[in-house]
Amino acid sequence: MVNEAMYARGAESSVIREIFSYANERKAQVGAEHVFDFSLGNPSVPAPDAVRASIERSLTLPPEVLHGYTPAPGMPEARQAVADSLNRRFGTSYGMADIFMTVGAAASVSCALHAVACPGEEVIVIAPYFPEYRVWIETAGATCVEVPADPQTFQIDVEAVAAAITPRTAAVIIDSPNNPTGVVYTRENLEALARVLDEANAGRAAARENQQPIALISDEPYREITYGAEVPWVPSIYEYTAVCYSYSKSLSLPGERIGWVLVPQASAWGRRVMCAVAGAARCLGFVCAPALFQRVVIDCVDVPSDVEAYARNRDVLCGALKRFGYSYVEPDGAFYLWVRSPDPDAEAFCERARAFELLPVPSNSFGAEGWLRVGYCVAAEVIEGSLPAWEQLAREYGLQAE
Amino acid sequence: MVNEAMYARGAESSVIREIFSYANERKAQVGAEHVFDFSLGNPSVPAPDAVRASIERSLTLPPEVLHGYTPAPGMPEARQAVADSLNRRFGTSYGMADIFMTVGAAASVSCALHAVACPGEEVIVIAPYFPEYRVWIETAGATCVEVPADPQTFQIDVEAVAAAITPRTAAVIIDSPNNPTGVVYTRENLEALARVLDEANAGRAAARENQQPIALISDEPYREITYGAEVPWVPSIYEYTAVCYSYSKSLSLPGERIGWVLVPQASAWGRRVMCAVAGAARCLGFVCAPALFQRVVIDCVDVPSDVEAYARNRDVLCGALKRFGYSYVEPDGAFYLWVRSPDPDAEAFCERARAFELLPVPSNSFGAEGWLRVGYCVAAEVIEGSLPAWEQLAREYGLQAE
Prior knowledge:
alpha/beta, 2 domains, four-stranded antiparallel β-sheet, NHTrfase_class1_PyrdxlP-BS (chains A, B), transferase (chains A, B), PyrdxlP-dep_Trfase_major (chains A, B), aminotransferase (chains A, B), pyridoxal phosphate binding (chains A, B)
């Protein structure tokens, strides 16, 4: 037949993609330099030269070696390189068994969710949140439970998480540096979350109702994109953590689909979950991560991300918006600015901004009302060019300029 | 919690992978030249030079263009190149809208199954069959219904398919050239299948119970690996067909995960199914096919597959096994020989063959008893070196040599 649930997911428009398409139309009509597209999270910084050098080196290998199937969890050398890099940075002692190479961040989260959640269970997300989390949670047959972040700081509201936990809670997904707010969760915030989860786990053990701990899925595609803040290593704070990673942002390789899931193998829980991650990858049809880019990971695992351009964009944009009277959340990482919409109806503001060819994303699709996501992974000229429009809109909405 | 279904899929051993691991152990112990590993379908023919040339050309592009996200259905140029190539070969008139680029054959079949089957429905496979079909069918929530092929020719037993159709039948999966038998379904056989499906659809329409036609999923990773037989273009024979393709075998790129699904957009059915394919790709976590290899497809879509080496292996292996008294199915395509096990218990034969370091795959995991799959995508020396073992085993089992 035709699967109506899948049809609906294919037919429903992603607001972000829709704005991106509209931007491209307008660029064709009025010239690219007159359109200020802040919709997508496509890195504007090119992949480092080391990526090209790695690919060129790989091309000297026999093609049947280079392009052959890798083991399902990935090439041993790639998994070991990732583990070694983490150990150097976080004082951990991982081995290749702790790492499962994936077809990018979406595959990492999808496989991790299928591994730790069962149909009928619940997965908590911290709103605002990346909209695809809901899609993947529901595909795994679970229910997406939104818990709003602290409305001032956009840190995790730990008490609200505690209140949302039920016997059916399978996992909590966090995402730091955060998309869409740019916030990095502090160590104190994560430790408080860990205490809440540990207490819930202890309660379960005592009640003998549900002996399984709550999994923490830490989705970290923006880990390397920070402006000075510490991004704590979550498995060192909470035992039952699976880390989902991708090189889409850190090495600017979003089209190549390469990432990993880490599940620490020190515990029986970790060994069971990693086996379920492998099962999920198999069941969903992943086979193995792209072989050539597994070799890129081996060669480039310690190549630093180039955040200079994002940092400059951030400073210019924040400085100007502050002057014009906008309020926003100070971004510690990622390349998104979370701006309070001058209109309580963020969609109405975005509609009005279109007259100025200014294209942020309204917050509704992230599970929050009255905010704008401004993706500043764009050319510096886009930031500069957009400022008169931001200023004029501020004036129209009567914002108090500094 | 831990999803037990996913855990089980991760924990269960693939017989093929197990034999492959055993082969590698033995090679380390007794020397690679003394082990005759016929387990895997990993192409022994290297990717053509055109692949390397394409990658080198792509490396001259700006990295943010080369490695950026592509649209979810793929780069328009890649989709158009595939459509144009099919039109030249099959007299069709496809456009880019008929093609959805995927992360390899497994993704193609997984997405197609999720698009056309709903939980509680049934999907028919022709036994023997590629074992992962069952995994993907069950992940989509459907039931895998095995219909044995004709026991002499291993063509589709069309009457048996007709008998297996119920109101819950969502789809039939076929795979020609076939893994594991090497058989290519004839045009007559496919036309007979189409008649059966059309009749079932007409019956449904008349009964007004289930207005949806039965989908035919034609999985064709081996389309290019043939030895003279015609491989008919299935959508020209049966309207409600989705073709699943990959470049793993035709261009020897199994590790790079690149393929496509074709669903003809001429009908409302096709448009609905393609939208559901896009929804499935999104729900399962695929995002887009690897960008660099989408460009390889643009450049190499018409590069012929190098079947010379497989043809030589096939001739040597078939000639020798016939002389020793084995019977087998004449292979028209793919790189598998389907040999009648001299022992009715194929696993017992394989156990005995291990004493000679001879490693075929017993038929059980393909849904058939008493056969062996011999993957001849290996170096010519492996074939030559294995012949004394085949001969000795034939003698021990009392086969009548020619």
